[in-house]
């Protein structure tokens, strides 16, 4: 990338004999422009940039210099949530200098949030080999792109995208950050009957969480009849190994908060609630005492969430909510305030589940929905629907239910169960289990009700669970779930007393 000094020197040399509408010399304009960029004065960035680009000397700059100015103007629009204008400037920057860094990061993020997975994937795969900005992409962005490609049935693009992620993306948490992509690759191999390839890819999984996900889903019968796979996916031993690795990382020269957050989560899963709390508190104290960590922008707030998980494990929902609010405050004070969104959704969801509909809606007002993934938007609709029912807003609830019926069948079913609409819930459940994948989703949902987290569930959730179990045992539904049980774990069926 061309240096700022080189651009200023070029402006000074090229400006001899040229005058613009602004009396300041072009190199001074550039200094003022970069000062506004550094200070995040976005209105000034756009104003100074407009003056620069209209000056006669601008056309004499090398393409790389003009691209840098366009990119900064695009970033200013991006942070002002003016996405259409931002996209125009970013595309202009790439046209002027295709190898420009950082622009790809912004465009891929924008395309992912606007459901343009094909464009995001193509751009990701076309990034220059020396452009490391793709490593700044958050994993949920890449997951959203892959999920969009799968939903659209664009399997050739999905395969190429996953291969590109595994080959080029270097996740901040290390090799375990590839696990989600490897799981999707395993599924693709199994769908195509490439069982040997699926097994080989399974050996590359790193994190215990990935092993648990695969074990819980059990989507492909052939994948789970292989005699050695249980040895690979021995969850507890795998988690214990990963836990020791995390301890070693934290004792090393460059500890990361990601490892601390993951260690706390692992200890909680292993039943060591005191250890989970001690770990989260110790590392939270270090970062809040001023110790610098490169990944603090992402994991500082997550340490508060880990303490919230501990509170829930002990049945202290009020304490858990207070910790989630601390996570929100921490995220909002960071350079990435949009990361508060998932924490706000968790708070709003628990408020709705405990009958505090107005509080839930007030919490949702604080969510920057532009930065939510499709799953986040679906959860938002689910919370609003539940709140509308509680507040007696039947017309509002029905409109939201129609949206969920169209876009999120499982969340639609959940609201029917929460609100006790058993006839409609049975119809929705029968529709879900009418396909093999839908039946698997329902069985996974039953599994989640039992094993999701070590927490005291709100009464409303317990009632919904009981209603689902009642409906799941009815003729036609029970057989479909039992058929899914051939693929999923037999243990998932014990509450239904079904013969798989």
From TrEMBL:
Keywords: Signal
Signal peptide: 1-21
Protein name per Swiss-Prot or TrEMBL: Tetratricopeptide repeat protein
Phylogenetic placement of the source organism: Bacteria, Pseudomonadati, Pseudomonadota, Alphaproteobacteria, Maricaulales
């Amino acid at each position: 990338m061309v240096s700022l000094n080189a651009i200023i020197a070029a402006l000074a040399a090229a400006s001899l004999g040229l005058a613009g509408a602004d009396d300041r010399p072009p190199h001074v304009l550039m200094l003022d422009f970069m000062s506004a960029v550094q200070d995040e004065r976005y209105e000034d960035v756009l104003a100074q940039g407009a003056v620069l680009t209209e000056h006669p000397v601008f056309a004499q700059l090398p393409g790389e210099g003009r691209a840098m100015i366009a990119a900064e103007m695009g970033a200013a629009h991006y942070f002002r949530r003016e996405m259409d204008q931002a996209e125009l400037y970013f595309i202009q920057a790439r046209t002027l200098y295709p190898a420009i860094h950082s622009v790809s990061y912004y465009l891929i993020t924008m395309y992912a949030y606007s459901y343009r997975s094909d464009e995001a994937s193509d751009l990701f795969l076309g990034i220059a080999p020396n452009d490391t900005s793709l490593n700044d992409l958050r994993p949920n962005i890449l997951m959203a792109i892959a999920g969009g490609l799968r939903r659209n049935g664009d399997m050739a693009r999905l395969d190429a995208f996953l291969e590109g992620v595994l080959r080029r993306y270097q996740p901040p948490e290390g090799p375990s950050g590839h696990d989600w992509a490897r799981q999707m690759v395993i599924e693709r191999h199994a769908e195509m009957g490439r069982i040997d390839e699926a097994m080989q890819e399974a050996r590359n999984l790193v994190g215990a969480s990935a092993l648990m996900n695969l074990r819980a889903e059990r989507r492909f019968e052939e994948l789970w009849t292989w005699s050695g796979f249980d040895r690979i996916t021995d969850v507890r031993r795998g988690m214990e190994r990963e836990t020791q690795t995390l301890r070693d990382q934290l004792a090393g020269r460059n500890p990361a908060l990601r490892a601390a957050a993951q260690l706390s989560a692992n200890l909680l899963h292993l039943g060591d609630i005191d250890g989970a709390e001690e770990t989260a508190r110790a590392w939270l104290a270090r970062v809040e005492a001023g110790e610098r960590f490169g990944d603090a922008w992402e994991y500082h707030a997550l340490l508060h969430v880990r303490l919230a998980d501990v509170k829930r494990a002990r049945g202290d929902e009020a304490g858990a909510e207070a910790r989630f609010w601390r996570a929100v405050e921490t995220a909002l004070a960071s350079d990435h305030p949009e990361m508060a969104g998932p924490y706000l959704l968790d708070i709003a969801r628990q408020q709705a589940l405990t009958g505090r509909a107005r509080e839930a809606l007030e919490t949702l007002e604080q969510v920057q929905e532009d930065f939510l993934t499709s799953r986040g938007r679906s959860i938002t609709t689910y919370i609003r629907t539940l709140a509308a029912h509680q507040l007696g807003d039947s017309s509002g609830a029905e409109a939201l239910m129609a949206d969920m019926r169209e876009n999120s069948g499982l969340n639609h079913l959940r609201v029917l169960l929460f609100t006790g609409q058993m006839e409609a819930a049975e119809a929705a459940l029968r529709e879900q289990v009418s396909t093999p994948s839908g039946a698997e989703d329902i069985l996974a949902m039953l599994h989640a009700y039992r094993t999701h987290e070590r927490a005291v569930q709100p009464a409303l959730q317990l009632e919904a669970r009981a209603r689902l179990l009642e409906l799941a045992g009815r003729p036609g539904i029970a057989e479909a779930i039992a058929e899914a049980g051939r693929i999923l774990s037999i243990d998932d069926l014990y509450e239904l007393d079904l013969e798989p």
